Each structure stands twice: as structure tokens, then as C-alpha cells.
Amino acid sequence: MNSTEDAEVNEACAVESLDRRWYLVAVCGTSLSVFSIVSNILISKVLLSSKHNHFYFLALLALSDCFLSLNYGPVIAMDIIKDRLKLRWLSNLYIQYVGPLLALSQTSMTFSCYLIILATIERYLITLRAKCLGTFRQCRGLSALGMFVLALMLRAPILFEMQIEQNPECIGEISEYYLNLSPIVNTFWYGTVYRFYIRNIMTVLVPFALLAILNYKIVKILRAQQRSAQMFRFLSSDHKTKIRSATILMVCIVFSYLLANILNVGITLWEYVAFQSTQTGDAYAFYETCTDVTSVLYILVCATRLFVYYLFNQEIREAIKPLVCHSASAPRKQDYVTVTRSFDSSRQIGTEIDAVAIAIARRLLSSELVFGGGGNSKETNDSFVISNHHATSGDEDNDDTDDDDEIPHMV
């Protein structure tokens, strides 16, 4: 009889370790988090420089993603590792620290989402050529601080929603202590109104819908402007390329976020409709798998941002190359463009502004040759130096600040 009871106790205290969760969350997720840490440190180093201050929100996003990736191993992966290794001291240690780190991780995840929203709004104002763009850019630091405070208010209380309890039937076993929800979760105002409705709406549903709408509007406006050529008619081809590149980059970032969070939106709606069904039978295994895939997808998005930046933005790509490849040559200077051509050629060089400058220079030099008595004018092949609109990196930053009301020079 005692042996039967002991067997039942051992079975009740046993910890299950699934290979599916081990390879997906612990092995694959941890590897991605390590790569994400390295890549986001590199991104933040590039974007935090004064030369790229127009990528302010993306620089903060890289720092937030780096912090989130640092916490993935201790918070998410360690939950699987401790069950796999079956070490009692490791399990007890995990229970002690997971509450604060989980609250910080969730805050960082929500803050990253809000930074993407701010960057998308900024890109939308640039694409729309809105007059309020200058005011919005002056308040970027305040906006980021406000989003961080909001994320903290929505996610930090997770710390008070968990409590450590002891299982009297498993004294001395690995599952002696476990985490359980605190009584505050069962109250109406906190558990139902705040925790379920407000938090899920503000951190999952609203950001998803808002980013989808903004992304659609940006793509729609950009296509219309490309057809009518209204936006780029008075800009140099180089500046036009930078604006389009930065816009495409932002669209790709938002699109990757939407793909990674569509499963999370489905889980949230499932919990809203029938939460009890997620905790019973085969539905729980499917629910658990979906939550694991969601966490890995988010880390995958963080880890692949470097490739997205490198592929879709030439300015960031040229800044990253010297850091990755030590043998890379120095960045190409675009201070001046020297155009060499003979007087009898009719081919246009550069933009319309460049063509006007060349025509004026020809008229002046032709007059000088006629009235000044140049003897060998027919054999002369002259060179003209045409100054670009953005001569140096310092001038480009000044243009970004001064001309926001007319033509936004921010990429």
C-alpha cells in the first residue's frame, strides 16, 4: 500500500520535459537570442552616432531589443532547461528571480512595439510632407519617454501577479516550490478590467491594428507620389533614393512585426472567447505550442533586423560595412560631382537643377570666349564642378533640421 502511495506521489511530483519544447524554445530560441544581442549592439552603435540621428527611434529599438534578447535565456529558455536537467537548486533559483525579470522583459517588449509605432508615425508624416513634422521631431525624446512610462504602467504590475507556493506533497522534490497567480488576479477591477481588457487591448490589439493601417497608408501614398513624381521633383536623385530607402525599410520592419504577432493576436482572442478551453485536454498542448512559437518568432524578428537594415537601407549598409569588414574601404564621399563634357554634347547630366547650372555656366563661358578673345576655344574640353544639395554630413543634418516645413530632409 505504501509503495502504491509513493508511486502516486512521485507521479504527481514528476516534471515533464518535452523534446518539442526543448529544441524549439531552449536550443533554437537561445541561439537566436545570442545572435540578436550581437546584431542589435552593432545596430545601436551605428544608429546612435550623431550622423544618423534621424534614425532616433530605431536606435532606441535596437537597445530595447538587445535588453529583451538578454532576458530571453534566463526567463523563457531556463523554464525548459530546469525541467530538462531536473536540478532542484536551479529550479528554486529560477522561481526566485523569474518574477522581476519577466516584468522587465514584458515592459521591454511593449516599449519596442511603441517605438515601432512612433517611427512609423514619423515616416508617415515624412511621406505625407506634413507641416507638423518639425514639431514631432523636436518632441522625439519626450515621446519615447512617454511610451516607456506607458509600457511600464501596463507591464510592470506583472511582478505582483505571481506568488511562490509550496506543494506539501513534494517536499524535497524538484517541484516542491512553484509559481501561482496571486489573489489580486481574481478581482474584477484588476483581473478582468485592467489585466485582461486594458492590457491586452493596449499592448496587442491596438498596436497591431494601428501599425497595419499606417503601413497601408504609407505604401499607398508612396505609390501615388511615385506615379505623379510630386515628392521628388525638386530633390536630387541621391536624396530621393535615401527617402525611398528609409520608407521601404520602415515598411519592412512593420511588416515583420505584424507577421510575428499575428499568432499572438489569435491567442489573445482565443483567451477572450474561451479561456477555460485553453487549459484542458489536447487544447492545452496546442495552446502551449502557440505561446512557444510566439516567443521564438519575436526573438527571430529581433535577430533578423540587422539583415533587414542591411538589405533595404543603403545609408545604414554603408555605415555597417566598415564595422563588419575591417578591409572595407572608407565610405564614398559625395561632397562634389565633377562633370566633364564638351560644348557640342546635348546629353543631360544629373537632375534638372544640375542641367540648369550647366546651361548657365556654358552661357557665361561662351561669352567670355567671344569677348575675351580666347584663341583655342574649339579644342578646349572644360570641366564644371557642381555642388550637391547635401555636400557634407554636417550640412545634411542641418538641412534635416531647417527645411522640415517645405521639403522634409529626413531619411
UniProtKB/TrEMBL annotation:
It comes from the Eukaryota. Residues 388-411 are annotated as: Disordered. It is found in: Membrane. GO terms for cellular component: membrane. InterPro entries: GPCR_Rhodpsn, GPCR_Rhodpsn_7TM. Keywords: Membrane, Transmembrane, Transmembrane helix. Residues 29-309 form the G-protein coupled receptors family 1 profile domain. SUPFAM superfamilies: Family A G protein-coupled receptor-like. Its main location: membrane. Residues 394-411 have a biased composition (Acidic residues). One of its GO terms (molecular function) is G protein-coupled receptor activity. The keyword Oxidoreductase does not apply. The chain crosses the membrane at residues 22-43, 55-77, 97-121, 142-160, 196-216, 248-273, 293-312. This is G_PROTEIN_RECEP_F1_2 domain-containing protein. It comes from Caenorhabditis tropicalis. The lineage of its organism: Eukaryota, Metazoa, Ecdysozoa, Nematoda, Chromadorea.
